[in-house]
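thread: overnight batch results

M.L. [08:02]
morning all. the overnight job finished for the chain we discussed friday. pasting input first so we're all looking at the same thing
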Amino acid sequence: MSDGPAGVLLLTDRRQARRPLTEVVAGAVAGGVRWVVLREKDLPRAERAALAAELRAILAGAGGTLVVAGPDPLGGDAVHLPAAGPYPPPRLGLVGRSCHDRAELARLTTEDYATLSPVYPTSTKPGYGPPLRPDGLSALIAASPVPVLALGGVRSPDQVTACVEAGAVGVAVLGAVMRADDPEAAAAALTAAADAASRSGHGRPQPPTTTAQARPELASATTEEER
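M.L. [08:03]
and the structure it wrote out:
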């Protein structure tokens, strides 16, 4: 199993960004972000692949990783998949999955990490029920076979701290950085909160485990695909 994202994972949305997307990502990386999910699914593949190459170059200088939303890694080796599929996930270096409840967590097999949302009220996740809040997040993390990042409405350092204290290895953010007047400062504040909470012993309530270990009944189905 690959080491998945931790700390702050930035999701892109060029329509919300107050500057060109590459500038916002560069600012976020300068502020400590090392994981970025490229969304922008409406772009033609060639345009999206070119953007992926630009963002990879920005991240490479800091030892960061670009993850592509959807099953096509666009020349890379890391993807983040929706809860709806595909199943089983592709065999790549890093695979994440969006989840929202216990049933979706139970479908995980060889994924390396999951996001859980919405944790706080957010306009981008209106169809997934009421926000989990830290207590609900903690309960679902306890049922997850993989490390979890909290997603949805995370805007402040205090919220980041609460999510990590609930057991998340980090948070996934969008608007807090995309819409920021100063993406570097916004990212720095969030990453500092995540780092401080992690150093306090939060964020890893149990040792990382494979899905086969967490759910022995799936061991025979997952052993060949363990990475």
